[in-house]
Design a protein that fits this description.
Largest sheet: 4 strands, mixed
Radius of gyration: 38 Å
Shape: rod-shaped
Number of strands: 6
Strand order of the largest sheet: 1-2-4-3
Oligomer: single chain
Helix content: 55-70%
Length: 294
């Protein structure tokens, strides 16, 4: 299946006071490169996010941005240092009695004292939030894949149509190839006939046949046509492959263009030269499209 390298996926979800946003952007790149941006508190999940997204991306540069707004109440728990609190209360009462103070240490002052209360993250809560985050990344990646496949269908239709046109032109080349040789034979005989009418001499048919044979060998494009046909078949086969095909398609187009160039250089017959130019033009359009194939 043809997939585009470009796409966008997004997922938002809320849990309590926490809002999670995942954005995934994919653009053209020669290789597979996944960049992950996570809040510092969750940076330990970077490798897991990268491996998860890689299941949906075969080639291209992918930027994954994860934003978390709000503070998770489930991810942390309040812990009190009761021993310190008891010591502070005891000292407060002793000081109140010793110095005849009217108001000993109150609850508010006690809670504000450094070290009396602190938050701690529980393992179970952390795992729960991490699982939630990865689930949202997976949903965003599926959204990205959906867009890549939708664009891939359009690329497939365009490339298939252009390939069919090239194959039709190659079939025409097969029919035109012997016509070019025959036209050269006719032109040569006409030219010799014109010369013979001006300067009487005997027409050497063997020499004419030798000249035609030399021209036929020099302008023979049968091998190029055969290779071009083979490349077209390989290209069509790759369009239905399940793995990443962009680089293979690009290579095949280079080889097809090489054969078209050779045909154009050998062409001494105008219709063949015109078809070679048409094929090269169409191959260039295909190459532009293939640059976006995963």
């Amino acid at each position: 299946m043809v997939r585009s390298m470009t796409g966008y996926g997004r997922q938002e979800d809320s849990r309590g006071t926490v809002r999670l946003t995942v954005e995934i952007r994919a653009v053209n790149h020669r290789y597979s490169e996944i960049q992950v941006r996570l809040p510092k508190a969750w940076s330990m999940l970077e490798d897991q996010v990268r491996k998860l997204v890689s299941q949906y991306v075969r080639r291209g540069r992918v930027d994954v941005t994860i934003a978390i707004d709000g503070k998770s109440q489930a991810a942390s728990a309040i812990d009190i240092d009761w021993q310190m609190a008891e010591q502070l209360v005891s000292l407060s009462r002793m000081m109140a009695e010793r110095f005849s103070l009217e108001s000993p240490l109150g609850v508010k002052e006690l809670l504000l004292f450094p070290g009396v209360i602190h938050t701690k993250e529980t393992a179970d809560d952390h795992d729960e939030v991490a699982e939630w985050l990865l689930d949202q990344v997976r949903t965003a990646a599926i959204d990205l894949l959906s867009m890549k496949e939708a664009e891939g269908k359009q690329l497939y239709a365009d490339l298939s149509s252009r390939l069919a046109q090239i194959q039709a032109w190659v079939a025409e080349l097969q029919q035109l190839a012997p016509m070019g040789i025959e036209e050269h034979r006719t032109r040569l005989q006409q030219r010799l006939g014109e010369w013979a009418s001006q300067v009487p001499f005997e027409l050497d048919l063997a020499r004419v046949a030798q000249e035609v044979a030399f021209f036929a060998d020099k302008s023979d494009i049968s091998e190029e046509i055969t290779r071009l046909e083979s490349h077209c078949l390989q290209f069509a086969k790759q369009l239905t492959a399940s793995e990443a095909i962009g680089r293979k398609l690009d290579f095949l187009l280079q080889e097809m263009n090489r054969e078209a160039n050779t045909i154009a250089s050998k062409a001494n017959y105008l219709p063949i030269a015109h078809l070679a130019v048409e094929i090269k033009t169409e191959l260039e359009k295909m190459r532009e499209q293939v640059q976006n194939v995963e």
